[in-house]
Amino acid sequence: MQSINDDTCPSFEGTLELIGRRWTGSVVQAAARGARRFGEYRAMIDGISDRLLSQRLKELEAAGLIDRTVVPSTPVQILYQLTAEGQALVVALQPLSQWSLRRSGSRVTKEVPVG
Amino acid sequence: MQSINDDTCPSFEGTLELIGRRWTGSVVQAAARGARRFGEYRAMIDGISDRLLSQRLKELEAAGLIDRTVVPSTPVQILYQLTAEGQALVVALQPLSQWSLRRSGSRVTKEVPVG
DNA sequence: CTGAATCCAATAGGATACTG
DNA sequence: CAGTATCCTATTGGATTCAG
Q1: CA angle A5, A58, A27 (to 5 degrees)
Q2: Do B8 and A99 touch (CB under 8 A)?
């Protein structure tokens, strides 16, 4: 049996460490639920600071999961939206989300946010 | 709907922060692949230190995902195995694992159409 | 073999204030 | 509105040593 850190699992660990940082899950979920502007994210994620929100958005953008667009209106609008990869991530995260919900005792009848 | 930090998503964030710590994904995967004794985990996870392996196992045990059993043989054996919850987690993590693999360009066992 | 203890460096995150 | 800059503390993780 070879080491599990050969070439396949580092990517998995990397993914976990990316989305395991504080607030990141919430930011991704906010994006999945339609947040686009900075203030929308901030309003949807209770307790997050500007600094961390900015940082998380940058990390997700660097990872190719969120797309930052500058709309030349007046005033300028900046939009953060999930890329195709980001949307695929949201889908891939759903079983884990369900698992978390069941564990925490909440009942999740049937409503699944995205998909 | 309500704020995403109402009562449902904290559990999700908590889960992400638990398995997002360094090595935790590897430890869970090692368990899923049959590791049971401390030394087996250590051998399967290249680069992890005793201290961190011990810490991760404790965290997973505290979360109810891994079960620690002392077998009174000579010398005493200590077994770390996934609980039912832990096994459910492994299953719930599979789509995320697949997503990571596709992203990193690795091939999945079965061919995945690119388009 | 299975850890616990200690020390240290790096990073993460919270609070606050300020800017184009 | 959409961030940046700073400061400061807490947490993390790596390395090494010791022990039952």
Answers
A1: 85
A2: no
| Residue B42: closest C-alpha in chain A | A3
Most B CBs within 10 Å, among A1, A6, A7, A15, to test the B interface: A15
Chain A residues with CB-CB distance to B4 below 8 A = 26, 29-30, 33, 44-45
pLDDT above 60 for A90 = yes
pLDDT tens-digit readout, B37-52:
999 999 999 999 999 9
pTM of the full structure: 0.86
* Full set of structural domains in chain B with CATH: 8-111 (1.10.10.10)
Q: What are the phi and psi torsion angles at A97 (to 5°)? A: -60, -45
Instruction: Name the minimum distance, in Å, from the CA of B76 to any CA of chain A.
Output: 25
Residue B113 CB contacts under 8 Å (≥ 6 apart), including other chains: none
Number of other residues whose CB lies within 10 A of the CB of residue A102: 15
